[in-house]
Amino acid sequence: MHQMAINRRDFIRSGLAVSAGALPAFILSPTVQASEKTEELFAAARRHLPNGESASYSAALFTSAGDLRSVALPGRGHDVAVRPHGLGERITQPVEVVAFARRPGRFAVAFSTNRAREPFHFFAKEDRHFYGHGVFSPNGKLLFTTENDFENGVGVIGIRDATAGYKQIGEFSSFGIGPHDMALLDDGITLVIANGGLETSPETGRQILNLTEMEPSLVYIDCRTGTLIEKQTLPALLHQLSIRHLTVAGKNRVVFGGQFKGPKTNQPPLIGFHDRGHEIKLVAAPKEVLRDMKNYVGSVTVDNSGEIIAASHPRGGFISYWDAVNRTFIGTRKLIDGCGVARTHSKSEFVQTSGTGQVEQTSLSTQVSKRFETARHLQWDNHAILVR
Predict the structure, then answer these.
(1) How many CB atoms lie within 10 A of CB 60?
(2) In angstroms, how far is the first alpha carbon of the chain from the final one?
(3) Bridge-based pairing state of the strands 368-371 and 359-363
(4) Domain around 253
(5) Beta-carbon count within 10 A of 212 CB
């Protein structure tokens, strides 16, 4: 292990002093360990770039000691979803995950810790593509996926039966354009969806077709019926702030990270908080930190306590941390091309992955970080997730 770069002197990025009294109490307290601490298992997609060879792609289940299992992907992956029945089981028991293609890919691959099971590929319909994210129902039977109905220019949520080879059994509207990330609230019924507002088409790749008419939104939907429960949009002046990734903190407070598609000289706040029945509250980091974010948040997640948020800024080369309870900025840690952030079983602790191949486990409580064992020539993709 080595000492983190975060300390009282430079906890806030260069030029912004902070006193011990300004730090939240939980930052100075010991890490709260899980009641039965075992080797934690994570999942993420990645790219391989061996010297002199063309790139290949995979998704991996890994621990701090290295890969538990890696499966080939037909193209670049994005995020991974975990079937709930695997959570809480011992590491010797099989658990299943699904890796999704990066937009505008159409493939998804289901695989498990059981090497005897062959990976299973399934695909979006011909007039749909995945946006790279999905979430399971609490019983693990249904998989919901964010998708693009590109012929009609609208977002949809696909519904698949995970117990029947991920056969698609329905879909409903996302009530917006470009649904990207989503999550279930504690009731196991309400889906919260980040509609990025970006219209794209496979014919033009990732080109934005509606830059001047964007309308990003947060929507809440009853996943049993597809009924809209609540929809929140940003002020008109911020209509080019694409709501992309989100996480659910304590008391069902939704925290999201934005990607601003307007003029580069504009630097709006990129971290938003939302409580049901209230307006979205955007919170800015200190001026120098906001500038260094370069109008881009790559991923967001909440820690085990539901109180601390980690947001990645791969273009700026650092991770920012936020107090989800008080909706305030905490500090940053340098990580070149760092994008994936996953919680662990400990309070104020995250595993963070990088496009340079680095994986580190960072505790804000102890201010200690350790490196994972990883293979050479790897570039980790946008997201990482705790499997168990």
Answers:
(1) 24
(2) 22
(3) antiparallel
(4) 2-386
(5) 8
Put residue 175 in one of left, alpha, beta given phi > 0 → left and psi -120 to 50 → alpha: left
**Token pair listed for 385:** 């997730």
Long-range contacts from 113-120, C-beta under 8 angstroms, 24+ separation? 113/41, 113/61, 113/68, 113/69, 115/69, 119/71, 119/72, 120/165, 120/166
pTM exceeds 0.85, yes or no: yes
- DSSP output for 75-92: S-EEEEEE-GGGTTS-TT
Map tokens 């102890």 to a residue: 366
Say which residue, 15 or 94, is predicted with more confidence.
94
Q: How many CB atoms lie within 10 A of CB 263?
A: 9
pLDDT in tens, 194-233: 999 988 888 777 788 778 889 999 999 999 999 999 999 9
Kindly report the backbone phi and psi dihedral angles of residue 133, in degrees, each rounded to the nearest multiple of 5, phi listed first: -135, 155
Q: Is 57 left (phi over 0), alpha (psi -120 to 50) or beta?
A: beta
Angle, alpha carbons 152-157-159 (nearest 5°): 125
Cis peptide upstream of residue 104 (ω within 30 degrees of 0): yes
Q: For 59-84, how does the pLDDT look when each residue is reduced to its tens digit (9 = 90+)?
A: 999 999 999 999 999 999 999 999 99
What is the full DSSP assignment across 323-381? ETTTTEEEEEEE-TTEEEEEE-SSTTEEEEEETTS-EEEEETTTTEEEEPP--SSEEEE
Q: What CATH number should be reported for the domain holding residue 130?
A: 2.130.10.10
Q: What is the mean pLDDT of residues 136-144?
A: 96
Are the beta carbons of 343 and 305 closer than 8 angstroms?
no
Q: How many Cβ atoms from other residues are within 10 Å of residue 164's Cβ?
A: 9
Distance CA 157, CA 150 (A): 13
The DSSP secondary-structure symbol of 22 reads: G
Amino acid, res. 215: E
Read off the tokens for 28.
Answer: 């100075």
CB atoms near residue 288 (< 10 Å)? 12
What's the domain count of the chain?
1
Distance CA 368, CA 313 (A): 21
